[in-house]
């Protein structure tokens, strides 16, 4: 009886984020391209993303703790329903003001959805299963997001409503899958016994270090998603090509997640997080000097791998102790929102006031600061 239950749980851990993040990236990659059609400036593109993420932030932090009190599905199902309405709204939008309002609604739904879902996975992960279930979760959202991001620009070019109507349909499927998942019994969670980490150990400074890289990754990702389409248009790229180039960041995330899911090589170690931050710095430098689509794609691939490694560490270390899971997933997703806010806002200002490549210099500089902060934390880890 146990194996079928474990197998079903892992299937749900993969399917729900794959569909949900696929829908999210279909909308998010197409959104700035549609806004440019409506006459958006670089500053507006940055402000649109940062404003929506700013509204998302309190929902990220609050939904995890609320789900601890009222139950996971009582937060998750309304959040997904709001995402469905927002995606349908994008298909009918006719100006940038409408896009901004709908994007805020979408980010509210995502902010409430993911912390509660991650804690829900913790609830359904018995002893020894947390790392494996989180691996399926991470692989799910990266595969779904990367595949859908790569085709979003082409769908928009073919027909303006296509990426948004397809995303709405995918969210509708998510609701049905979640209802089935909630019917599975909670078999009891316990402290993990994954290799390399004792059940009674906490992550120590590695939680903070991985969260630094986690925030940094979404700082850069936000700039890429919201601002590179403007640079791509200036360089004469088609909407489909821009979608593919931007989508390489999500492909990179998938690679980073796969590498992190392959084994315990990164757990309890400082150097993987430093490597991720170093790749982030390198990606910013490459984008600044790039003159070809291949170089842009390589830079965003590198940026995505960096994010995948840092994201995995931050999520795992936050759930490792099996206490305050809703609170920790809320902090985890708040850092996603915070990185998106600051990256889009500061990147938009730099693009508007200096040049369309200036945001990536800012990103590289922040990555260097992150490395310095992580080395300081690492010194504390070695002394304790």
Q: Could you characterize the architecture of this molecule?
A:
- The protein is mostly helical and 384 residues long.
- 83% of the residues lie in helices and 0% in strands.
- It has one domain: Up-down Bundle (Growth Hormone, Chain: A).
- About 3% of the residues have low confidence.
Q: Can you describe this structure in just a few lines?
A:
Helix content is 83%, strand content 0%. By secondary structure, the chain is mainly alpha-helical.
Low-pLDDT stretches are 190-200
Distance between the termini: 44 Å
In sequence order, what are the helices and strands, one letter per element? HHHHHHHHHHHH
Known CATH architecture? Up-down Bundle
DSSP strand count: 0
CATH superfamily: MFS general substrate transporter like domains
Give the arrangement of secondary structure elements:
Layout: H1 2-37, H2 42-70, H3 73-92, H4 96-123, H5 130-158, H6 162-182, H7 205-234, H8 239-261, H9 271-289, H10 293-319, H11 325-353, H12 358-383
Helix pairs in contact: 1-4, 1-5, 1-6, 1-7, 2-3, 2-4, 2-7, 2-11, 3-4, 3-6, 4-11, 5-8, 5-10, 7-8, 7-9, 7-10, 7-11, 7-12, 8-10, 9-10, 9-12, 10-11, 11-12
Features:
12 helices, 0% strand, mainly alpha, 83% helix, 384 residues, single chain
């Amino acid at each position: 009886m146990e194996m079928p239950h474990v197998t079903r749980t892992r299937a749900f851990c993969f399917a729900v984020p794959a569909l949900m993040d696929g829908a999210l990236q279909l909308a998010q990659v197409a959104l700035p391209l549609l806004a440019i059609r409506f006459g958006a400036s670089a500053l507006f593109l940055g402000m649109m993303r940062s404003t929506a993420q700013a509204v998302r932030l309190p929902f990220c932090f609050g939904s995890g703790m609320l789900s601890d009190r009222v139950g996971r599905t009582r937060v998750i199902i309304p959040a997904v329903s709001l995402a469905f309405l927002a995606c349908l709204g994008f298909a009918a939008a006719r100006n940038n003001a409408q896009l901004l309002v709908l994007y805020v609604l979408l980010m509210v739904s995502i902010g409430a959805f993911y912390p509660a879902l991650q804690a829900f996975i913790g609830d359904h992960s018995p002893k020894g299963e947390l790392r494996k279930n989180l691996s399926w979760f991470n692989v799910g959202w990266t595969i779904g997001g990367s595949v859908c991001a790569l085709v979003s620009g082409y769908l928009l070019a073919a027909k303006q409503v296509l990426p948004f109507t397809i995303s709405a349909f995918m969210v509708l499927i998510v609701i049905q899958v979640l209802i089935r998942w909630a019917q599975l019994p909670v078999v009891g969670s316990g402290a993990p016994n994954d290799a390399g980490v004792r059940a009674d150990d906490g992550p120590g400074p590695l939680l903070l270090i991985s969260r630094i890289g986690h925030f940094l990754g979404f700082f850069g990702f936000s700039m890429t998603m919201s601002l590179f389409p403007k640079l791509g248009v200036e360089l004469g790229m088609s909407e489909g090509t821009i979608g593919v180039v931007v989508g390489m960041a999500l492909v990179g995330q998938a690679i980073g997640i796969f590498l992190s899911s392959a084994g315990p090589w990164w757990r309890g170690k400082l150097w993987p997080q430093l490597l991720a931050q170093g790749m982030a710095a390198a990606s910013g430098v490459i984008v600044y000097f790039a003159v070809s689509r291949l170089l842009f794609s390589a830079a965003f691939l590198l940026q995505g791998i960096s994010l995948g490694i840092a994201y995995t560490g931050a999520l795992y270390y936050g759930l490792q102790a099996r206490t305050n899971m809703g609170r920790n997933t809320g902090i985890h997703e708040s850092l996603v929102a915070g990185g998106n806010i600051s990256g889009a806002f500061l990147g938009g200002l730099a693009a508007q006031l200096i040049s369309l490549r200036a945001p990536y210099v800012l990103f590289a500089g922040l990555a260097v600061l992150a490395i310095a902060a992580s080395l300081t934390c690492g010194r504390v880890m070695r002394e304790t």
